[in-house]
Specification:
Elements: E1 7-10, H1 16-27, E2 31-36, H2 41-54, E3 58-62, H3 68-78, E4 83-86, H4 101-129, E5 132-137, H5 150-170, E6 175-182, H6 188-201, H7 205-213, H8 225-235, E7 247-250
Helix pairs in contact: 1-8, 3-4, 4-5, 6-7
């Protein structure tokens, strides 16, 4: 499989899942646009490093995914968008009656509304080219609920619904739109939570991962950013030409229960 000649925009991609996806798409030949809301020297250095490692063109474009104008400007500044990966997301946990309105608004804006704006901006170019791939990073929480995560779950369910609608509106146009629904993925953010969980539960690392953090994930193993990247690359391949409007769970069996 080669994505040589294609340009992929990955939102929220200067770390974690987004960076893992960027690496995999670059590995199979796609030029990459990295993104986050910061505009630091290290962000641009990351783009240079990724380009050197994979021999593709890589740029970093700062854009705040909580702002619709920024979302659309990201697509415009990139110039070309053959592959759009909507990955940017944030989380906050609280009971509904205590959930801060500002946190609700931010989570819905970044996790859901940003995907609407970037997709709307990218589709005209994809239609003109007669080819396009939109991959939305949802979550197992796009298919299941948990307490205290009302905004995140509402947003991720919305991402799944948006993916289905985009798929129907683009069917037969050479464009596909799907959602990947990861379970718990071992990212730097999750890794940083492990010591605190060990202290809170008086458990060693392996036990707290297996019995606390992955209690809903039957495999009792984290998914990896490389696995999410590989699934994304597959959805961009010719083998996935007729896969559209669906979800692919990468969750160790969580949503099978």
């Amino acid at each position: 499989m080669s994505l040589s000649g294609k340009t992929a925009i990955v939102t929220g991609s200067n770390s974690g899942i987004g960076l893992g996806i960027a690496h995999e798409l670059a590995r199979v030949g796609a030029d990459i646009v990295l993104n986050s809301f910061t505009d630091r020297d290290e962000d641009h250095a990351l783009a240079e490093s990724l380009a050197k490692e994979h021999g593709v063109k890589v740029r970093y474009i700062a854009a705040d995914m909580s702002k619709g104008d920024d979302c659309r400007a990201l697509i415009a500044k990139a110039g070309t968008c053959d592959i759009l990966v909507n990955n940017a997301g944030i989380q906050f946990v609280a009971p509904i009656d205590e959930f801060p309105v500002a946190k609700w608004d931010a989570i819905i804006a970044i996790n859901l509304t940003s995907a609407f704006h970037t997709t709307a901006a990218a589709l005209p170019g994809m239609r003109k080219a007669g080819w396009g791939r939109i991959v939305n990073i949802a979550s197992a929480h796009g298919l299941r609920a948990s307490p205290f995560k009302s905004a995140y779950i509402a947003a991720k369910h919305g991402v799944v619904g948006l993916s289905k609608t985009v798929a129907l509106e683009t069917a037969g146009q050479g464009i596909t739109c799907n959602a990947i629904c990861p379970g718990y993925v071992l990212t730097p953010l999750v890794e940083a939570q492990i010591p605190d969980q060990m202290k809170a539960h008086h458990m060693d690392r392996e036990t707290v991962i297996r019995e606390v953090m992955l209690d809903r994930q039957p495999s009792r193993q984290f998914a990896t950013v490389e696995e999410i990247g590989g699934t994304t690359a597959f959805l961009c391949s010719a083998a996935a030409n007729q896969i559209t409007g669906t979800t692919i769970s990468v969750d160790g069996g969580w949503t099978a229960m």
